[in-house]
Structures are given as structure tokens and as C-alpha cells.
UniProtKB/TrEMBL annotation:
One of its GO terms (biological process) is protein import into mitochondrial matrix. Belongs to the PAM17 family. Keywords: Membrane, Mitochondrion, Mitochondrion inner membrane, Protein transport, Transit peptide, Translocation, Transmembrane, Transmembrane helix, Transport. This is Presequence translocated-associated motor subunit PAM17. Component of the PAM complex.
Length: 97
């Protein structure tokens, strides 16, 4: 039961001790989550062989972790785009002049 109540009490104590910084921290957190939402991939094209990499950004612990998360999101999008391009050109006859 402590694992469930601990974070709630811990947050309350932390914000009581740092109440001057609470608004600034909440703004930074809101901006961060907006960036995660803006940059995450569309999960509709995922599969068992190509799962979405950390959709909610839960594993981000640092700035370098955020940069790695962005690279993973871009790589997933590239893979998705490449697979889409291959599927859309399949079956078409290309006439060369």
C-alpha cells in the first residue's frame, strides 16, 4: 500500500517545501508533455514486428534520453514511410523512355 500512497504524499511534501517553484515546474512539465505529444509517432501503423517506441515518453529521464526518444520516433516514421512507399509502388509498371 505504501507504493501507492508514497508518491502522493511525497509530491505534497515536495511542493510544500518548494511552493515558490511550483508554477514554474508545472509550466515546464506542460511544455514538455506538449512536445512529447507533438513528436510522437502515429501508432496505427505499428505491428508485432515493428512496435511503437515508447509512445508516451515514459522512459525519458534526461535531456539525452529525450534526444534518443526523438531519434527513435524519427526512425519509426522513416521505417513506416519506407514500407508505405514500397507498398504503393508495388504492382505499377514503370515505363522508361
Amino acid at each position: 500500500m505504501g507504493w501507492l500512497v508514497g508518491p502522493s504524499i511525497g509530491n505534497q511534501v515536495f511542493y510544500l517545501m518548494n511552493h515558490r517553484l511550483k508554477a514554474q515546474m508545472m509550466n515546464k512539465e506542460t511544455e514538455f508533455f506538449a512536445r512529447v505529444k507533438k513528436n510522437r509517432v502515429d501508432p496505427t501503423n505499428s505491428s508485432a514486428g515493428n512496435p511503437v517506441p515508447d509512445f508516451y515518453g515514459e522512459k525519458i529521464q534526461s535531456v539525452s534520453g529525450y534526444r534518443q526518444w526523438l531519434r527513435d520516433q524519427r526512425a519509426f516514421n522513416k521505417k513506416k514511410t519506407r514500407a508505405f512507399d514500397e507498398d504503393s509502388t508495388e504492382g505499377k509498371d514503370h515505363v522508361t523512355g
